[in-house]
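README: folding subset

This subset contains proteins for which both the sequence and a predicted structure token string are available. Records are stored as plain text. Below is the entry for DUF1499 domain-containing protein (167 residues), shown exactly as it appears on disk.
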Amino acid sequence: MINVRKVAPFALGSIRKAGHKVGAIASGLGLAAILGGCSGTPPSDLGVEGDRLKPCPDKPNCVNSFASKDDTDHHIQPLAAAQPQQTWQMLQTLISETGNATIVSQSEGYMRVEYKSSLFGFVDDVEFLLAPEAKQIDVRSASRMGYSDLGVNRERIDEIRAALADK
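--- output ---
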């Protein structure tokens, strides 16, 4: 016969530990579901204004090649395009091959792309504007939510720049 008094405390402790683990996992999944569902509404005012992309908001979660060079939080160099049409085609191919990017809107010399983070599903809106006469592609990359992006948007544009240079 099993002595319940000797086994019960061990079993009860194990059940409590398992219960805490299940609770922690459920809490984590709940937080991920909440954050994943909070990708935000796409801004309605994106696109080209005159011959420029929309300015960045007053938060350090956006970079824009039209921002003043003195604005070190937001300014980023445009993408070089010595052969504008060829570079534009390479950019489109590069984005279409990126697993977390979706081309949402495209017209002659303009493209809007949504990048979705893999962990929580945060969405960043990235815009490209071809300026063939200047032999460049202007860029704007901004987080939809939050205050800081910890440099993610700047890093993304720099990675795109490097990838285009390698082709």
